[in-house]
Specification:
elongated, DNA-binding, homodimer
Amino acid sequence: MANFFEESDISASKKRVLNSALVLFVEKGFFNTSIPDLVAHSGVSTGSIYHAFKDKEHLARTLMDLLLAKVEVDQATLLAAHRECWQRYYHLAKWLFEMTETFPHVMQFILYARHREFMPTIQPLCSSKPFMTLRSVLEQGQQLGQIREMDLMVASSIAYGSILRLIQLHLDGLAHEPLQEHLDELTCAAWRAIKAD
Amino acid sequence: MANFFEESDISASKKRVLNSALVLFVEKGFFNTSIPDLVAHSGVSTGSIYHAFKDKEHLARTLMDLLLAKVEVDQATLLAAHRECWQRYYHLAKWLFEMTETFPHVMQFILYARHREFMPTIQPLCSSKPFMTLRSVLEQGQQLGQIREMDLMVASSIAYGSILRLIQLHLDGLAHEPLQEHLDELTCAAWRAIKAD
DNA sequence: GTCTATACTCAGATAGAC
DNA sequence: GTCTATCTGAGTATAGAC
């Protein structure tokens, strides 16, 4: 399992706690993960955890902020490299699949944790910058006449709902082949549904 | 807010507790809902709750079992009324949208609660009968040559992932128009993606 | 079946030495 | 910055009267 925080500019013990939090929050859930669990998994003591993070909620927030920040950077890089709508869509899908296979815990935490339940003030995920970016790619395609005139949320649901659904099936163990094998079939199918005719 | 348990053959106080559990588990989450919360919301005492349900987990299981049983009955009725693949797909989507608008808490609890976290032995939702039924509709359509040859999980992700995504956007408040308004546009688009050519 | 009062557990958080 | 020891309170579940 790749360590997502390896290269970040964070103190060593913070990194270990964040990584343990990521793993345990995904595998057991936030509320089933006690501070003693984090101590045992990370090898960092209670005192040090509370020295680095105000409380358990703040730990989760820090984790989420770091993950989303990394995602934003990845997306920006990707959109800079591809400027055409279909290319962008295809490579976003590819990147989502790669992320899922390289950092399954990261994807599970971002996509499927019930953030509101343990971070009461967080904004809904679907209003976050990465999700807005996904939609904006389709919006631009629509303005250029490459995507048919249809409700943006509907187009978005087709284009990304299908990708996210396959990712979930994969993470839940119902689609065990490598996701990349389905990349072309899935993106082409979704594109048929939304492309201008 | 419609009460889902109105007509069920369950004692009155059980019904009240189940309804409160549904509402509170969805609005605050399972772990943020204490027994005192359930007492305050349902008007049923701690003692009576524990008389009716072994413990909090068993309450959640009973709730989930009742919801899934109702869903199975609805699906069976619907499939008996429509025998052609496209018809079945369209009416399943319609029913999912109707369920979401009539019983949003029910849909949220079924689709978006992290069941595993508070019911450790439950099977994954995507392996449950209702989800298998959704896939089997596409499988039959494929055998009859009405749906193109493609991986079943991919077809499924397109057909239902898009519907579930729009439902999620709606429940999260990003798509506020009535779902029914998007029914035709969404199902037709998804069908373009998967129909045989 | 329904209720009130209460026991027990353990997680979250702090204090304070090193 | 790191640790151990400890406190406190919330929350689950039970006992036992009605």
